[in-house]
Amino acid sequence: MLSNRWIINLLLMAAIVALLLVGLYLGKQQEADKKPGISRLKPADVTTIEIHAGGGELQLRRDAQGWSVASPVDWAAHDANVERLLSILKAGASPIANAADVELEPLGLQSPAASLRFNDTELYFGGSNNIGERRYVMLDSKLYLLPDVYLAFASQGLAGLADRRLLPRRYPLESLQLPGLKITRQQDDSWRAEPVAGHSQEQLSRLIDNWQGLQASRIKRHEGSRDEGRPIVARLQDGLSIEFRLLTIDPEIVIVNPKIGLQYHFRADFHDQLISPGQADDAG
Questions:
Q1: What's the predicted TM-score (pTM) here?
Q2: Which of 1-5, 19-23, 222-226 has the lowest mean pLDDT?
């Protein structure tokens, strides 16, 4: 006769087996129910994106170095945010109707809230259906209901799609003129500071790396004058120069790139990593 402990163990094993079988069944059922993406165009095949949203137009292009903004400015793009934009092509949904069979105006598609063109594939955002935060979308003359988050991806504008680094690595630096300090690349790719103030090679390299690799906590459109703040001049290896403006260092560091009309925000304790390695600076 089986002891109570054996009976309990057998019941536990039976429960585990049952849970495994249920999991396998649900997994297969979910796989069967998974819907294909709304477009046959693969994100990896997209090389140009055109965005019309909020009364503005923005164009993106892909090259060997990744995504960049082509218009209204020429600057590196934030690859991760562009990939979120591309994710709409993979959105799993079945068409709810053919565009030719319904009135587009009540759905907000007569005057779309925004539109995207991936290569030659056009997509339009209509109004919300007010249920489950879903929005009418038209693609290839078919209508879909997709999560409203895709419109947010399309409407993030230049500040959301520009690279969050001050000088992305596609713009290799030759020298950086900071307030009171110039750092110049040497023939052996080391860095030299002028005036010489005892900065170590590690400090100088880290500061340059931060200018090319540190991501801002946020980026926003610059509303002020192009000339306000203290100048910082970056000279690139191709001979071109880009002038930045240091607006504030407290309560946060704000550096403006007038070329693209955006300002980059960093924590105040990044001062040594971005402005003056290992030195205090009380200027505001």
A1: 0.81
A2: 19-23
